[in-house]
Amino acid sequence: MTCRLLGLAHRRKRKAQQAKRFGLPNGEPDLLLARVMANGFSKAAIHLNSRGLEQQRFHARAAEATRARFGRRVFLRGVVEPSNFCRENCHYCGMRRDNQSLDRYRARLDELSELLIHHRPTSITDLNIQTGEDPVAVRETVIPLIRRLRDQTPLGISVCLGTLKPEMYDELQAAGATIYIMKFEIADAALYRRLCAPGCLEERLEHIRLLASKGWKVSSGFIAGLPEQSMPELLSNLEVARELPIVGCSVSPFIPGEATPLHDAPTGDVELTLNVMAMLRLMRPDWVIPAVSALNLAGPGSGYQRGLRTGANLVTMNLTPSGIREDYLLYKRDRFIMTEERILSAIEAEKLIPSEQSLSDFYSGNEEKNVSAAALA
Ligand code: SAM
Fold it and tell me: What is the model's pLDDT at position 299?
């Protein structure tokens, strides 16, 4: 279907959904936020500008919503990045196809398998396999890697590989992946187009719905603080997220990427990002919301921990071999790499505990079994 037809179909569906605006499926919206939302999302801007003590209270409420639902446990996931080839050309991303200055790589299947099967950190229960949009790497590396991991480890497997042919989603699922991470990136269609985000917005949303209909647990996400992003545009991300059939959502601060058309733009405001995260959490206490490593680039020294203090309940540890990691260039070469040590100390500092249950088991409905009394205390 063309992007225009997809847009029409979706707009019609959205109109119908407006009618039952507060029928939040499975959610228990925070009362104050629900009241704000009843007056329209634009009124929620007061939360975006929250600072100081009022902001601390707002974030604490978001963290409480997480604890009430998930206890003190935080999911721990590793990430590997087997390819930095990308056929997309997003203005904000360092791996965009027009970036000629980047050395492109595809990792060796055997090297990744050895690393993940025999030398992974003991604390992780899940693995996310993320690449630029590169169907060749999916076929040659990702699918065989998933099969090996499925056979030889108990890891829950997530993938974040961009928009692919439906048959490829099926092959990934048959190999053993259960969670698909597909950020919708930018909810405002005009800004999406201007920044050349992948394909078009309606197509991206359509793929998210398709994946969910095929039984994937889908997590999505968006970027906060992009150049030219107005407050209503930022808030529209919450509206779009709320209407998607997803089980989790991330908020990343915009980081001006090396060798991108936006390299001179200001970094997204960490306060704004955390405030949107708090709103997202209060809107959906049942979603898994990650603390993204970019929080430490936008808020050096404290951003990541503040993410946990704002109700995030998933952390990701980078396991890409160091020889190629530098070329997985989302933003800058000096990426803030989340190692096991950094992650465990951030979790401990916030008086949280690593989950022993994998995210994929949690999603498949076994959560009640493993929430210990200690975790809920
Ligand atoms: N290619 C896959 C896809 O399309 O879903 C995998 C993810 S893509 C390589 C990298 C992700 O990093 C994007 O989904 C985007 O949200 C995020 N990202 C890239 N550049 C960014 C930037 N400058 N600031 C914040 N987030 C950025």
Answer: 95
Question: Other CB atoms closer than 10 Å to residue 138's CB: what's the count?
Answer: 24
- By alpha-carbon position, which residue is closest to atom 12 of ligand 1? 330
**Nearest atom within ligand 1 for CA of residue 160:** 6
CATH of the domain at 218: 3.20.20.70
On whether residue 340 sits in a domain, the answer given is yes
- The Å distance, Cα 35 to ligand 1 centre, comes to 33
Task: Judge whether 29 lies within some domain.
Answer: no
268 close to ligand 1 (CB < 6 Angstrom): no
Report pLDDT for 338. 81
| 198 CA from centroid of ligand 1 (Å) | 10
Give CA–CA dist 146/148, Å, rounded: 5
Atom 4 of ligand 1, nearest CA residue:
162
Kindly give the number of the ligand 1 atom that is closest to the alpha carbon of 257. Answer: 23
CA proximity to 102, closest of 123, 84, 120, 118: 84
- What pTM was computed for the model? 0.90
User: How far is the C-alpha of 251 from the C-alpha of 237, rounded, in Å?
Assistant: 9
**What is the total count of domains within the chain?**
1
For residue 32, tell me if it sits in a domain: no
Distance in Å, CA 222 to ligand 1 centroid: 9
DSSP E strand stretches across the chain:
73-83, 126-131, 156-160, 179-181, 217-224, 248-253, 314-318, 353-354
Q: What is the pLDDT of residue 28?
A: 46
- Which segments in the chain show pLDDT lower than 70? 1-43, 334-335, 366-377
pLDDT confidence of residue 98: 97
Q: Is the CB of 196 under 6 A from ligand 1?
A: no
298 CA → ligand 1 middle, Å: 15
Question: Does residue 16 lie within any of the structural domains?
Answer: no
Task: Find the domain containing 274 and state its range.
Answer: 41-365
Looking at residue 329, what is its pLDDT? 84
